[in-house]
Each structure stands twice: as C-alpha cells, then as structure tokens.
C-alpha cells in the first residue's frame, strides 16, 4: 500500500534531492568551468528523485520496487561523488565552506533515506514470503 513506512523515506529522498538544487554546492558545480560536472550532478540528483517518486506506486510488486530503489541508491552514490568532488575542488573542509559541507550532508541524508526505504521494502517482502510458507 502507499501508506507503508518506506513511502515516507522515498518522499523524503525526493524532497532532499530537490532541496540540493537550491544549495551552494549545486551552484558551484554548475559554475564549474567543466560543463559536464554541473550536468552530471544535475542528472545524478534528478534521476534518483524521479525513480523514488515512481517507485512509491510500485507497491504491488515489491521485488520490482526494491530493484528500482537499488538503482536509485547507486545513482545517489554518484551524486554524492559529485558533491564531494565539488567540495574538494573548492578547497576541502573549513570554516569558510560551512554551507557547502551542509549541502553535501543533504545528499548523504538522501542516500540514507533511500537505503532505509530499501531495507523496509526487503523486510515487507520477507514478511509476505514467511506468511506464504505458513499457508
């Protein structure tokens, strides 16, 4: 059902990925002289966001839903790589880059949210399989 707990985590992932577009780390990535860096970060944030929203409605087929959430997780790891790459190209961690570090933290929270959604989907699937064995 749509009311399952993993739906909350999938919606949270979409909201967090959308929030990254309004942070300094994204603006620095877009303003990078290598244009592919900004495009890559935008794609690696948009695709998991869309996959998370679509996978909410795949609740009738949990194995398919889990497969799509795993794909979104891998794409989110790529987004984290772009965020960390942008952060290190700015000079690493420091007091003057506090907003950029927090922006990268949003990507990490989004990744954790996807991981938790996948864990809960797997838990639901195991519960259904155990109930089928009892019948």
Automatic annotation (TrEMBL):
This is DUF4293 domain-containing protein. Keywords: Membrane, Transmembrane, Transmembrane helix. It comes from Rhodohalobacter barkolensis. InterPro entries: DUF4293. The chain crosses the membrane at residues 7-29, 35-59, 71-90. It holds the Pfam family DUF4293.
């Amino acid at each position: 059902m749509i009311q399952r707990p993993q739906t909350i985590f999938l919606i949270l992932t979409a909201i967090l990925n959308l929030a990254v577009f309004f942070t300094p780390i994204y603006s620095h990535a877009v303003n990078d002289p290598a244009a592919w860096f900004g495009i890559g970060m935008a794609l690696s944030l948009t695709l998991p966001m869309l996959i998370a929203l679509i996978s909410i409605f795949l609740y009738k087929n949990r194995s398919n839903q889990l497969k799509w959430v795993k794909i979104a997780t891998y794409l989110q790891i790529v987004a984290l790589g772009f965020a960390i790459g942008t952060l290190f190209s700015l000079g690493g961690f420091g007091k003057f880059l506090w907003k950029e570090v927090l922006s990268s933290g949003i990507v990490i929270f989004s990744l954790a949210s996807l991981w938790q959604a996948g864990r809960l989907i797997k838990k639901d699937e195991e519960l259904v399989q155990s109930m089928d064995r009892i019948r």
